[in-house]
TrEMBL record:
Keywords: Signal. The keyword Signal applies. Residues 1-22 form the signal peptide. This is DUF3108 domain-containing protein. Pfam families: DUF3108. InterPro entries: DUF3108.
Length: 268
């Protein structure tokens, strides 16, 4: 249980980056935002199961605002994760991730990770220089690949990708910068289907990301994610086995969407 609660926020944040497709491998470098508005808020609930029954263990929220950073207009996107009070008794998690994203091309300018996991605190402040392909973090200077994304900016970048040009089975590579490392990953597009979540029934787009072996995940393509099949491209559900039991993350609330959530077929 401790292994799970320790990673509630990072599970969700790693999951959403799995829909960051083809940024540098196919020339899909730079994009304009047509999917979300400043003021949007999305709530996700994390469920854990070890004996077949899922129980609510924590939640994550994502908010957006329009600000200025070094004289440049940016989207300030914040992701926060926390355990519920019962799970605080086992391992209290209070995680906060922030990304300042260039409104012109959806690339991150600054990323902050400020987490407290069972009293173990981590702070990392990363400034990206996309022109020189470097990232300056609290711990040093690192070389990065082109069109690099962080774990928060990735979600918002991905929501502006046209998935209609992919066919089921396509493997889509991408790079991500996290904890001063570059991760070379991919997702496999699985097509479209209807999915029933704790919130309701949706028309959805389905993916399987490649996971890194050695974390609480087993590695390979064992995680499955679904996003809304409408212009919002909201993450709806994520499921995965972990080292002990399994985890499920469902979208449970939202406000300030740019478009109606037309993928919603019916409420639960």
């Amino acid at each position: 249980m401790i292994n799970f609660t320790k990673h509630i926020a990072i599970i969700f944040l790693m999951v959403i980056t799995t829909i960051t497709a083809a940024a540098q491998k196919t020339g899909f470098c730079g994009n304009t935002n047509k999917a979300f508005l400043p003021g949007e808020k999305v709530i996700m609930k994390v469920y854990y199961s070890a004996l077949g029954a899922y129980i609510g263990a924590g939640e994550a929220s994502f908010t957006t605002a329009l600000e200025r950073f070094n004289g440049k207009p940016v989207y300030h996107c914040v992701g926060e994760g926390k355990t519920y009070s019962f799970f605080d008794n086992f391992f209290k998690v209070r995680d906060r991730y922030e990304s300042y994203i260039d409104t012109a091309n959806m690339s991150p300018i600054k990323f902050l990770r400020n987490v407290d996991e069972g009293g173990h605190k981590i702070y990392n402040n990363v400034t990206f220089n996309q022109a020189s392909n470097t990232a300056v973090s609290t711990n040093g200077v690192f070389k990065i690949t082109e069109c690099m994304q962080d774990v928060v900016s990735a979600m918002y970048y991905a929501r502006n990708i046209d998935w209609n040009k992919y066919k089921p089975g396509d493997k889509i590579p991408f790079d991500m910068f996290l904890d001063d490392e570059i991760f070379h990953l991919y997702i496999r597009y699985m097509g479209k289907e209807k999915i029933k979540t704790q919130y309701g029934k949706f028309n959805a787009i389905k993916f399987k990301p490649l996971l890194i072996k050695g974390t609480i995940f087993e590695g390979g393509e064992k995680m499955t994610a679904w996003v809304s099949d409408d212009p919002n491209r909201l993450i709806l559900r994520v499921e995965s086995p972990i080292s002990v039991g399994s985890v499920k993350v469902d979208m449970m609330g939202y406000s300030g969407l740019r478009y109606p959530l037309s993928s919603l077929i019916s409420f639960r």
